[in-house]
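TICKET: design request
STATUS: open
ATTACHED STRUCTURE:
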């Protein structure tokens, strides 16, 4: 049975609150990882999450990911009006995110897949 993007978002948001004290860190991290883009900003993430997070919450989550060393905030000329962009960097944190994007199946039956995806949009994760 395919996992809906709403179920996936709620799954990640619940775990994010427990792990990070912020509901949007794991959903944002999941989207960043699945997008396979090295550079991203709040507008792209908001669209990728289907409008389930506002700009302020997305920027807070991106900044938190930068604190963890998973992203680096790129310099900008005008700190008051220029949009903020972040670059994904190699970090062990992405292994944690990957683990949360794949949830083990509770009951293993012969011929069943051993895992089902929990990607933000239900997409297969490489």
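STATUS: resolved
RESOLUTION: sequence designed for all positions
ATTACHED SEQUENCE:
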């Amino acid at each position: 049975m395919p996992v809906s993007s709403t179920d996936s978002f709620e799954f990640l948001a619940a775990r994010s609150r427990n792990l990070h004290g912020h509901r949007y860190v794991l959903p944002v991290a999941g989207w960043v990882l699945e997008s396979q883009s090295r550079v991203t900003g709040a507008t792209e993430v908001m669209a990728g999450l289907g409008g389930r997070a506002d700009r302020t919450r997305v920027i807070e989550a991106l900044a938190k990911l930068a604190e963890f060393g998973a992203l680096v905030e790129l310099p900008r000329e005008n700190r008051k009006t220029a949009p903020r962009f972040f670059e994904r960097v190699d970090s062990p944190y992405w292994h944690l995110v990957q683990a949360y994007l794949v949830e083990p199946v509770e009951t293993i039956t012969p011929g069943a897949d051993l895992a089902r995806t929990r990607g933000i949009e239900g997409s297969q994760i490489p």
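CLOSING REMARK: The CA atoms of residues 31 and 48 lie 7 Å apart. Helices lie at 5-20, 25-35, 42-48, 55-68, 93-101.
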